[in-house]
Write a structure and sequence with these properties.
Number of domains: 2
CATH class of the largest domain: Mainly Alpha
Number of strands: 10
Helix content: 55-70%
Distance between the termini: 72 Å
Shape: elongated
Strand order of the largest sheet: 2-3-4-5-7-8
Largest sheet: 6 strands, antiparallel
Radius of gyration: 42 Å
């Protein structure tokens, strides 16, 4: 009975452990590289801030475009009362005046982008009840003043058009920055993704080494117990087994740390358990270096950003030249005024109101301020041009470096693959020697470490090649694996 009970408890324990393993397996979330990038784009703090910057630039441009449309405003003054005593120059006496009024002002204003002018239509309608001590009488009645006004700047630059163009360039620059940040994020996430995979592979290799060492330990123990080998071999086998077990446990810690760092980078919950699922199958890619450089110089968004900086600097020069400039302003106003005690007779005898004004601002002497500021702006433009040339040269250099690295990595992959094959054959051969008593446990451990090292080197060479291909795609905005141009995301949905 006791034996049966012990068997039953053992079965329950095995069943319990199996349930735990199955639940752990199903709770672990597998992540591909594309899935990781999608999560990072939505949850990464860097992308969130860049996305908000893009939204801000878009809304600023929307607001500017809205301001260029007709603006309607209504001002109401239901009740107004004034009582004052003031000196009247016309009669050379002090005069007391009491006024009660109520009026409304309706305005339609329309800016003109083409000429930087502003046209406005205003209508002021009100009722006035005023008493003057001098005349001893009061005046009551309705009045209406309708006028069309034009204000046109002269001999200066178009400020409305410049401001609109600056906001358009700011939005384009924000879109470019968003796309650049997205590519940078892809590079960082890919590197972190493959680093987690490297740790997974290191753990698998360490586990394989641990399992192999357990088998060799069993062989050594059996040989010692049979009196075939000296007990010192048993001690060395125990040390080798403990060392590989410790290395296996260390690799588990490194893997968990790498997964936590990766989850933090892409914005996942730290309590989610993940398993990265990469595709490191490597097909050699033929790269035409001339074509790659041409793509880089044609597509790189940094070049467009440098060009935007040049355009912005030119706008600054235009504004600087307007400092202490000769300029003018032309004002035109055409109106129709009417008043009457009766509302329906307001325009019974209307009066025309016309105004024409021309003002000029003539600078006389500014002690060289304008000239110096213009030279400073011109120096900024020249600096921006030099920066553009430097960016072009850097693109050429970066593409050449990546190309050379790809050729070198292809050779390294071939060598690493053959090294793994040789190391595996060597280990298998020496394992047989160890079983036959022709090799010590210390020597076998050396061959096991060589095999693990070659396997890691091969994995790292594959990952390095994949990362360098990604680097080439970022440098040229052309995917040489898929033979297609890369179109970064330039706008986002609100």
């Amino acid at each position: 009975m006791k034996h049966s009970g012990r068997i039953f408890k053992t079965q329950l324990l095995i069943l319990f452990m199996a349930v735990i393993c199955i639940s752990t397996l199903f709770s672990q979330q597998g992540l591909t590289l594309d899935q990781s990038l999608a999560v990072a784009e939505s949850n990464s703090p860097t992308m969130k801030k860049t996305r908000l910057s893009l939204i801000r630039s878009q809304e600023n441009l929307n607001a500017q475009n809205a301001s260029l449309k007709s603006n309607f405003s209504l001002t109401l003054n239901p009740i107004g009362y004034t009582q004052s005593r003031e000196f009247n120059d016309l009669i050379s006496k002090w005069n007391s005046r009491t006024t009660k009024e109520s009026y409304g002002l309706f305005t339609v204003s329309q800016p003109i982008v083409f000429t930087d002018a502003r046209i406005s239509l205003t209508n002021r309608f009100g009722y006035t009840d005023s008493y003057s001590e001098y005349s001893g009488s009061s005046t009551k009645g309705f009045s209406n003043n309708l006028s069309l006004n034009i204000d046109q700047p002269l001999f200066t630059y178009n400020r409305t058009r410049i401001q609109l163009k600056e906001l358009q360039l700011a939005l384009e620059n924000a879109q470019l920055n968003y796309a650049i940040q997205l590519l940078s994020l892809e590079k960082l996430v890919t590197q972190a993704f493959y680093f987690v995979y490297q740790q997974q592979q290191s753990l698998d290799i360490a586990n394989q080494a641990y399992q192999n060492m357990q088998k060799s330990y069993e062989v050594s123990r059996n040989k010692v117990e049979a009196g075939i080998s000296a007990r010192e071999e048993m001690f060395q086998a125990e040390l080798n087994l403990a060392t590989t077990k410790s290395d296996f446990e260390n690799k588990q810690v490194l893997l968990e740390n790498a997964k936590d760092d990766f989850k933090l980078m892409i914005g996942m919950s730290l309590y989610d358990d993940i398993l990265v699922i990469p595709n490191i199958a490597v097909d050699t890619v033929d790269v035409d270096i001339s074509f790659a450089i041409e793509q880089g110089l044609s597509n790189r968004m940094e070049l467009r950003q440098r060009a935007i900086n040049i355009e912005t600097s030119q706008f600054d020069l235009i504004q600087t030249k307007a400092l202490n400039e000769f300029k003018g302003s032309l004002g035109l106003s055409l109106g129709l005024f009417g008043d009457n005690q009766k509302f329906r007779d307001v325009y019974a005898s209307p009066t025309d109101n016309e105004t024409v004004s021309l003002s000029l601002t003539i600078p006389l002497w500014d002690w060289g301020e304008r000239k110096s500021r213009i030279k400073a702006s011109e120096a900024s433009i020249e600096t921006a041009n030099i920066t553009l040339e430097e960016e072009q040269n850097n693109i050429i250099l970066d593409v050449r470096k990546v190309y050379r690295n790809l050729l070198n990595l292809q050779n390294q992959i071939i060598i690493a693959r053959q090294s793994v094959t040789n190391a595996q054959l060597t280990y298998d051969l020496n394992l047989e020697k160890y079983k036959n008593g022709d090799l010590t446990g210390m020597d076998l451990n050396i061959y096991q470490n060589q095999l693990s090292e070659k396997q890691l080197t091969y994995t790292n060479s594959l990952i390095s090649y994949k990362l360098e291909l990604l680097n080439l795609k970022i440098q040229t905005l052309y995917d040489f694996e898929k033979k297609t141009a890369v179109s970064p995301v330039m706008t986002i949905e609100k």
